[in-house]
Amino acid sequence: MSRTFHIFAEREFDEFSRSLIERLSGKIQSEDKNYLSNVNRTQYLDHIVSEFEISPLGLDFENLSVSTSERLIPGERLPSFEFGFLRGGSYPKQVIKYHIPFSGDEQLLHYAPSQRILNTREVIVEKKEVCFEIIDFYSDPERIKRDAEQVLNLLRQQAQYLENNIAQHNQQLRPRAESFFDARKAEILKQSQIVAALGVPVKKSANVPVTFAVPVRARKQVVPKPSSSSE
Questions:
Q1: Angle at 46 between CA 224 and CA 35, to 5 degrees
Q2: 17 touches 204 (CB < 8 A)
Q3: Do 93 and 144 contact (CB within 8 A), yes or no?
Q4: Confidence check: pLDDT of 76 > 90
Q5: Is residue 155 over pLDDT 70?
Q6: pLDDT higher for 161 or 3?
Q7: What is the mean pLDDT of the chain?
Q8: Position 196 confidence tier, pLDDT thresholds 50, 70, 90
Q9: Three-class DSSP category at 98
Q10: Which of 19, 29, 91, 130 could make an S-S bridge to 100, C-beta 3.0–4.6 Å?
Q11: Helix axes 141-196, 13-30, angle to 10 degrees
Protein backbone atom coordinates (compact mmCIF):
# COMPACT_ATOMS: atom_id res chain seq x y z
CA MET A 1 0.00 0.00 0.00
CA SER A 2 1.30 3.46 -0.93
CA ARG A 3 2.23 5.86 1.83
CA THR A 4 2.54 9.61 1.88
CA PHE A 5 6.06 11.04 1.97
CA HIS A 6 7.86 14.35 1.59
CA ILE A 7 8.99 14.52 -2.02
CA PHE A 8 12.65 15.23 -2.88
CA ALA A 9 13.53 15.49 0.81
CA GLU A 10 13.94 12.14 2.56
CA ARG A 11 17.46 11.05 1.53
CA GLU A 12 20.50 12.69 -0.07
CA PHE A 13 21.07 11.99 -3.76
CA ASP A 14 24.83 12.42 -3.34
CA GLU A 15 24.88 9.45 -0.95
CA PHE A 16 22.93 7.37 -3.46
CA SER A 17 25.37 8.30 -6.23
CA ARG A 18 28.39 7.43 -4.09
CA SER A 19 26.89 4.06 -3.17
CA LEU A 20 26.45 3.19 -6.85
CA ILE A 21 30.06 4.09 -7.64
CA GLU A 22 31.25 1.99 -4.70
CA ARG A 23 29.20 -0.94 -5.99
CA LEU A 24 30.66 -0.43 -9.47
CA SER A 25 34.17 -0.56 -8.02
CA GLY A 26 33.33 -3.63 -5.98
CA LYS A 27 31.96 -5.46 -8.99
CA ILE A 28 35.12 -4.83 -11.01
CA GLN A 29 37.26 -5.97 -8.07
CA SER A 30 35.25 -9.19 -7.75
CA GLU A 31 35.50 -10.18 -11.43
CA ASP A 32 37.48 -13.32 -12.24
CA LYS A 33 41.11 -12.49 -12.98
CA ASN A 34 41.17 -14.54 -16.19
CA TYR A 35 38.05 -12.79 -17.37
CA LEU A 36 39.40 -9.27 -16.84
CA SER A 37 42.75 -10.19 -18.37
CA ASN A 38 41.17 -11.18 -21.68
CA VAL A 39 37.88 -9.31 -21.99
CA ASN A 40 37.48 -6.53 -24.54
CA ARG A 41 38.01 -3.34 -22.53
CA THR A 42 35.55 -1.14 -24.45
CA GLN A 43 32.78 -3.74 -24.43
CA TYR A 44 33.21 -4.42 -20.73
CA LEU A 45 33.15 -0.72 -19.86
CA ASP A 46 30.01 -0.24 -21.97
CA HIS A 47 28.37 -3.00 -19.95
CA ILE A 48 29.42 -1.86 -16.48
CA VAL A 49 28.59 1.81 -17.12
CA SER A 50 25.11 0.98 -18.43
CA GLU A 51 24.46 -1.13 -15.33
CA PHE A 52 25.19 1.67 -12.88
CA GLU A 53 23.97 4.75 -14.73
CA ILE A 54 20.67 6.29 -13.60
CA SER A 55 17.73 6.72 -15.94
CA PRO A 56 16.28 10.26 -15.77
CA LEU A 57 13.13 10.90 -13.76
CA GLY A 58 10.41 12.52 -15.87
CA LEU A 59 7.45 14.40 -14.35
CA ASP A 60 4.85 14.90 -17.09
CA PHE A 61 3.31 18.24 -16.14
CA GLU A 62 1.71 18.53 -19.60
CA ASN A 63 -0.66 15.66 -18.77
CA LEU A 64 -1.67 16.90 -15.35
CA SER A 65 -5.17 15.91 -14.19
CA VAL A 66 -7.36 16.25 -11.08
CA SER A 67 -9.87 14.14 -9.20
CA THR A 68 -12.22 15.18 -6.41
CA SER A 69 -13.73 13.65 -3.32
CA GLU A 70 -15.48 14.78 -0.16
CA ARG A 71 -13.90 13.98 3.18
CA LEU A 72 -14.46 14.79 6.82
CA ILE A 73 -11.83 17.32 7.88
CA PRO A 74 -11.03 17.86 11.59
CA GLY A 75 -12.17 21.24 12.88
CA GLU A 76 -8.62 22.03 13.99
CA ARG A 77 -7.54 22.20 10.34
CA LEU A 78 -10.23 24.64 9.26
CA PRO A 79 -9.37 28.36 8.85
CA SER A 80 -9.83 30.50 11.94
CA PHE A 81 -12.65 32.53 10.35
CA GLU A 82 -14.93 29.47 10.33
CA PHE A 83 -16.46 30.41 13.70
CA GLY A 84 -19.27 27.89 13.45
CA PHE A 85 -16.95 24.90 13.72
CA LEU A 86 -15.82 23.35 16.98
CA ARG A 87 -12.51 21.78 17.88
CA GLY A 88 -12.80 18.02 18.06
CA GLY A 89 -15.46 17.82 15.38
CA SER A 90 -15.13 16.83 11.71
CA TYR A 91 -16.77 18.59 8.77
CA PRO A 92 -17.27 17.64 5.10
CA LYS A 93 -15.04 19.48 2.65
CA GLN A 94 -14.17 18.93 -0.99
CA VAL A 95 -10.61 17.67 -1.60
CA ILE A 96 -8.92 18.30 -4.95
CA LYS A 97 -6.25 15.73 -5.83
CA TYR A 98 -3.69 16.61 -8.52
CA HIS A 99 -2.19 13.75 -10.53
CA ILE A 100 1.19 14.11 -12.28
CA PRO A 101 2.28 11.13 -14.44
CA PHE A 102 5.96 10.25 -14.19
CA SER A 103 8.51 7.92 -15.75
CA GLY A 104 11.72 6.51 -14.34
CA ASP A 105 12.67 4.99 -11.00
CA GLU A 106 10.13 5.78 -8.29
CA GLN A 107 12.78 5.78 -5.56
CA LEU A 108 14.29 8.94 -7.07
CA LEU A 109 11.26 10.87 -5.80
CA HIS A 110 12.62 10.38 -2.28
CA TYR A 111 16.07 11.87 -2.97
CA ALA A 112 17.04 15.48 -2.29
CA PRO A 113 19.26 17.07 -4.97
CA SER A 114 22.50 18.70 -3.81
CA GLN A 115 21.18 22.10 -4.94
CA ARG A 116 17.59 22.49 -3.86
CA ILE A 117 14.84 24.65 -2.46
CA LEU A 118 14.51 24.15 1.29
CA ASN A 119 10.86 23.27 1.01
CA THR A 120 8.89 20.13 0.28
CA ARG A 121 5.36 18.81 -0.07
CA GLU A 122 3.64 15.68 1.17
CA VAL A 123 2.68 13.48 -1.78
CA ILE A 124 1.63 9.93 -2.56
CA VAL A 125 2.42 7.74 -5.57
CA GLU A 126 -0.50 5.98 -7.25
CA LYS A 127 -0.14 4.01 -10.51
CA LYS A 128 2.96 5.89 -11.76
CA GLU A 129 1.48 9.26 -10.78
CA VAL A 130 2.69 11.72 -8.15
CA CYS A 131 -0.38 13.04 -6.31
CA PHE A 132 -0.92 15.91 -3.90
CA GLU A 133 -4.10 17.27 -2.36
CA ILE A 134 -5.59 20.69 -1.74
CA ILE A 135 -8.58 21.05 0.57
CA ASP A 136 -11.23 23.47 -0.66
CA PHE A 137 -11.66 25.57 2.49
CA TYR A 138 -12.82 28.75 0.77
CA SER A 139 -15.01 27.61 -2.15
CA ASP A 140 -12.72 29.70 -4.34
CA PRO A 141 -11.38 28.05 -7.54
CA GLU A 142 -8.84 30.84 -8.13
CA ARG A 143 -7.34 30.26 -4.70
CA ILE A 144 -7.11 26.52 -5.36
CA LYS A 145 -5.35 27.25 -8.68
CA ARG A 146 -2.85 29.58 -6.98
CA ASP A 147 -2.11 27.06 -4.22
CA ALA A 148 -1.69 24.25 -6.76
CA GLU A 149 0.62 26.32 -8.96
CA GLN A 150 2.91 26.98 -5.99
CA VAL A 151 3.24 23.23 -5.46
CA LEU A 152 3.74 22.56 -9.18
CA ASN A 153 6.45 25.21 -9.44
CA LEU A 154 8.23 23.67 -6.45
CA LEU A 155 8.14 20.22 -8.04
CA ARG A 156 9.33 21.55 -11.41
CA GLN A 157 12.34 23.26 -9.86
CA GLN A 158 13.30 20.37 -7.59
CA ALA A 159 12.94 17.89 -10.47
CA GLN A 160 15.27 20.05 -12.59
CA TYR A 161 17.87 20.15 -9.81
CA LEU A 162 17.65 16.37 -9.50
CA GLU A 163 17.98 15.96 -13.27
CA ASN A 164 21.21 17.98 -13.10
CA ASN A 165 22.55 15.65 -10.40
CA ILE A 166 21.62 12.55 -12.41
CA ALA A 167 23.43 13.94 -15.47
CA GLN A 168 26.55 14.64 -13.37
CA HIS A 169 26.45 11.11 -11.96
CA ASN A 170 26.16 9.53 -15.40
CA GLN A 171 28.95 11.69 -16.84
CA GLN A 172 31.46 10.62 -14.19
CA LEU A 173 30.72 6.89 -14.46
CA ARG A 174 32.85 6.20 -17.55
CA PRO A 175 36.09 7.79 -16.33
CA ARG A 176 35.62 6.23 -12.88
CA ALA A 177 34.98 2.80 -14.40
CA GLU A 178 38.05 3.16 -16.64
CA SER A 179 40.19 4.02 -13.64
CA PHE A 180 38.90 1.07 -11.59
CA PHE A 181 39.29 -1.32 -14.53
CA ASP A 182 42.81 -0.25 -15.42
CA ALA A 183 43.97 -0.35 -11.80
CA ARG A 184 42.55 -3.84 -11.31
CA LYS A 185 44.07 -5.11 -14.57
CA ALA A 186 47.47 -3.64 -13.63
CA GLU A 187 47.30 -5.44 -10.29
CA ILE A 188 46.42 -8.72 -12.03
CA LEU A 189 49.37 -8.27 -14.41
CA LYS A 190 51.69 -7.59 -11.49
CA GLN A 191 50.51 -10.78 -9.78
CA SER A 192 51.08 -12.78 -12.98
CA GLN A 193 54.62 -11.40 -13.36
CA ILE A 194 55.45 -12.41 -9.79
CA VAL A 195 54.19 -15.96 -10.38
CA ALA A 196 56.03 -16.17 -13.72
CA ALA A 197 59.27 -15.10 -12.03
CA LEU A 198 59.09 -18.17 -9.78
CA GLY A 199 60.13 -20.34 -12.73
CA VAL A 200 57.61 -23.07 -11.84
CA PRO A 201 54.78 -24.19 -14.16
CA VAL A 202 51.39 -22.85 -13.11
CA LYS A 203 48.75 -25.51 -12.51
CA LYS A 204 45.55 -24.59 -14.32
CA SER A 205 42.32 -24.52 -12.37
CA ALA A 206 39.83 -27.13 -13.55
CA ASN A 207 36.82 -24.93 -12.90
CA VAL A 208 37.79 -21.95 -15.08
CA PRO A 209 35.31 -21.80 -18.01
CA VAL A 210 36.46 -21.10 -21.56
CA THR A 211 34.04 -18.21 -21.81
CA PHE A 212 32.02 -16.23 -19.29
CA ALA A 213 28.24 -16.09 -19.41
CA VAL A 214 26.27 -12.96 -20.19
CA PRO A 215 24.24 -11.95 -17.09
CA VAL A 216 20.45 -11.89 -17.06
CA ARG A 217 19.20 -8.53 -18.36
CA ALA A 218 17.93 -6.23 -15.61
CA ARG A 219 14.71 -4.23 -15.84
CA LYS A 220 16.49 -1.21 -17.28
CA GLN A 221 18.42 -1.36 -20.56
CA VAL A 222 21.85 -2.77 -19.74
CA VAL A 223 24.54 -3.48 -22.33
CA PRO A 224 25.19 -7.26 -22.28
CA LYS A 225 28.34 -8.38 -20.50
CA PRO A 226 30.96 -9.49 -23.08
CA SER A 227 32.46 -12.96 -23.02
CA SER A 228 36.18 -13.51 -22.50
CA SER A 229 38.66 -16.22 -23.37
CA SER A 230 40.43 -17.80 -20.41
CA GLU A 231 43.65 -18.39 -22.33
A1: 70
A2: no
A3: no
A4: no
A5: yes
A6: 161
A7: 88
A8: confident
A9: strand
A10: 130
A11: 20
